[in-house]
Amino acid sequence: MGKTEKNWLRDHVIICGLGATATHIIEELESYRERAAKGDERNAESMGFFEYLVIDSSEEAINRTKVKWPHMQALVGDATDDDVLEQAGIRKAYGIFPVLSSEKDNLYITMAARQLNPRIRIVARTADIFNIGKKLFKGGANAVISPNFIGGLRLVSEIARPHATDFLDQLLHERGTQLQIAEAVVSSSSRLCGLTIREADLPRKCGLYIIAMKKKGVRSYTYNPSPNERIEHLDTLIAMGYRDQIAELKKQAGEE
Fold it and tell me: Which of 46, 76, 130, 194 has CA atoms 20 to 30 A from the CA of 37?
């Protein structure tokens, strides 16, 4: 990728590697691109559409992947090299996925990304959520995902609560579904800022209800928040609704 290409990258996500996990990430992001291409730009954006760039050391693997996804932006190089991360626009990126097969490499990328961009969101992959996962969090990861751990939870959920699991699956993953769960971060300029949930009157303005709320600087969520709960700058609102309703909520929140 040339210098002229990297200059436009901003608020994108960087995917490290082209393994199985990375391929699933790309497939999900490309599904949003398809919606945008069909004239559904606003809804694709409201669901979390990001431009993305892949870093992989194999030019052959990149070219092979581009056959399926020709719009994919890619950089041939070692994602553990700080210079390569700089070329990938790490300082202007919104997020990064350290999803290489090497735990040591994912840990290094996590630490380097946090140092190069203090505001970046880092979602790392590990096979050992309890040991390596702790190191990744200490290194600066915002979230750590273990495919094996998540897979185990999903298997149990399919036995214990199959209908609830199927419902959430449709909301989060089924293409073409109109109903979704989404989040909106309240900006300082938002008309919601300073209002209580009752005063905000989102059921009338957007046609949806807030099912959870996360206050700035607090790790836990308040589920089914009280109508008297005040909405403040950088609070996160979690809502369930149709795509146009979610788009209106994000507009009301004035996301930064």
Answer: 76
